[in-house]
Amino acid sequence: MREQLNIIKQKAIEELKTLDTPKQLEEFRVKYLGKKGELTAILKQMGSLSEEERPIIGKLANEVRLFLEDEIESKSNQLNSLALEQRLREEKIDVTIPGKRRRIGAMHPLSIVQKELEEIFIGMGFDIVEGPEVELDYYNFEALNIPKNHPARDTQDTFYITENILLRTQTSPVQIRTMEKKKPPIRIIAPGRVYRSDAVDATHSPLFHQIEGLVVDKGITMADLKGTLDTFAKRLYGEDAKLRFRPHHFQFTEPSAEVDVMCFACHGEGCRLCKGEGWIEILGAGMVHPKVLSICGIDPEVYSGFAFGLGLERITMRRYNINDIRLLFENDVRFLRQF
Ligand code: PHE
């Protein structure tokens, strides 16, 4: 039996060297120390030993058991730390590797300027309203005092859905829609897309943007129009901005004007930017025509108002020195990323 114990011990020592997973180690433990294990089997035979032999073999068997338990524990520690090492190796993070760069989108230049203009008018107490881009002939022309077959339609040819439904050529129809719904005082701006069947070139696009302004109340005069636009120009271009009103004609305003801002590059001298004019046209404006007020059910004897309309592309292009309107609509990220 002493012999057997030694054999078991030697065998166990050899076997232990070949183990390299916790699972194998557990199998090893069961094999020797489990209920049906080899060492346990020997201990069970103790009863057949003589009185003298029993304590000696018992002591020896116990030593072997303790020895194996020790070995198992240290092997277990060894395997655990190996596993930990491996995991650390696998999960190692190299903090010096350059990160993946994510590109963040930018606001479109037209949106930047539109937002800025909106802020200026909100600051003056205007509300922002919207109208449909697919519009009735009635709102786009008829109610704005531009009857069918009137020559004023010539410059605003557009895309027709049906004879009476079209893509709006201006934001002015929002004036009508607003006055139909709301009685004065009215103080709104209406930004949005407009369409004209113009051929595409560096300064023309069949789709562009306008911002309409409308103020209607008792006692509104041309002085209010000039004051409002003057304040607007100073907010947009700085305190020394100067405006010039030139007489003009629009069907839905009377009197009408085109409004220029003094060229901020040459201060009126004339340069390349203003094409030698000294002034740059920025918008159309006028006092709302009494006929238009009447059509909307507002009594022109009691109320008066002014309106203006400006082109967003023009202001944006001048602001950022963009020389071709097509750049604004081509969606080339190399261009858009710059804003
Ligand atoms: N709607 C006009 C245009 O597109 C501009 C305008 C708006 C003029 C409001 C006067 C008043 O040319």
Protein architecture, described:
The protein is α+β, with helices and mostly antiparallel strands. The chain folds into 2 domains: 2-90; 109-336, Bira Bifunctional Protein, Domain 2 (BirA Bifunctional Protein, domain 2, 2-Layer Sandwich). It contains 11 helices and 9 strands. The chain is rod-shaped, with a radius of gyration of 45 Å. The protein starts with a helix and ends with a helix. Bound molecules: phenylalanine (PHE). The site of phenylalanine has 11 residues, from strand 8 and strand 9. Phenylalanine binds next to strand 8 and strand 9.
How big is the Rg?
Answer: 45 Å
* Structure ligands: phenylalanine
Number of beta strands: 9
What is the succession of H and E elements?
HHHHHEEHEHEEHEEEHEHH
CATH architectural label of the largest domain: 2-Layer Sandwich
Q: Which descriptor suits the 3D outline? A: rod-shaped
Major β-sheet annotation: 7 strands, mixed
Oligomer: single chain
